[in-house]
Amino acid sequence: MKITTVGIDLAKVVFQIHGVDERDKVAVRKQLKRAEMSKYFANLEPCLIGMEACGSAHHWARKLEGYGHRVKLMAPQFVKPYVKTNKNDMADAEAICEAVRRPNMWFVAIKTVEQQAILSVHRARQGFVKARTAQGNQIRGLLSEFGIVIPPGIRSIMKQMPEILEYGENGLPGSMRNLIERLTENLQAMDRQAKELEAQIQLWHRENEASHTLAEIPGLGPITASAIVATIGDAREFKNGRQLAAWMGLIPKQNSSGGRQTLLGISKRGDTYLRTLMIHGARAVIRLAEQKAEPESWLRKLMARRNTNVAAVALANKNARIVWALLAHDRIFRPGYTPAAVVASM
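RE: above sequence
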């Protein structure tokens, strides 16, 4: 009995597998401990393996592909409809085995070790930036209770803190001065960590050709470009640019029925970090366009009839489509590019 398809419910210690043969009959249904996984699949004839794109999925996908298997990763929300009974490991593995064989299923590209490594640097930097912002707000809030008001921003705190700590007439008791000094040192340490990780991302960006190409798009700097390249992987996994924009959550969410189209706000699906970078980059372009862009440009016309938030999302959506075109077709960015179909219709 040859096993053709296997569904694996991943875990930290105990893995549940569900396999079927060429006649869709259950061929194996068992639990494997982590130490047994490699030996079992190394001795199994090459087959199709499905897993949910969750923690450690990319690691196991690379490992099982090394044994000759064909591995497919799926988003958990696409697997859930195939769970027939109450949720448990056995039912989940069976649902994964069923979902991976669907011809219209959407799959997640398997990331390389290098992609996962640079994404880890991004996540660590993001954590330091959030902690730095929270620490700065805490310092400003504590000092405001003593009548000392500092303008928003990390630079304002760094600039005014020496004077605040040295000035003896501001009414701060000694214990409060010691506390603020301790918090400021922690703020400086987190700021230094964030800058060092950003320098590491910049170095990776300079050595990656695809990331360097995307950085030419207005609104995409080294941070955003490197995050896109590391997250997307192979852009050819998406059928067109609109699919990539939808995957980023930059298209309207629908609640349509009975032939009546109802469009809501953006869907906010996909990677929150990536979407945030795209929209922040679009906001920077809009601030510059208010002063320097031509009045007849696409962006200025959009800004004239829509508010800034809508224009920023629309520009981020457009940039996402440009990203797909550059990565999927190995092209370079040309600011004044006009598609041949548009030129022919003019």
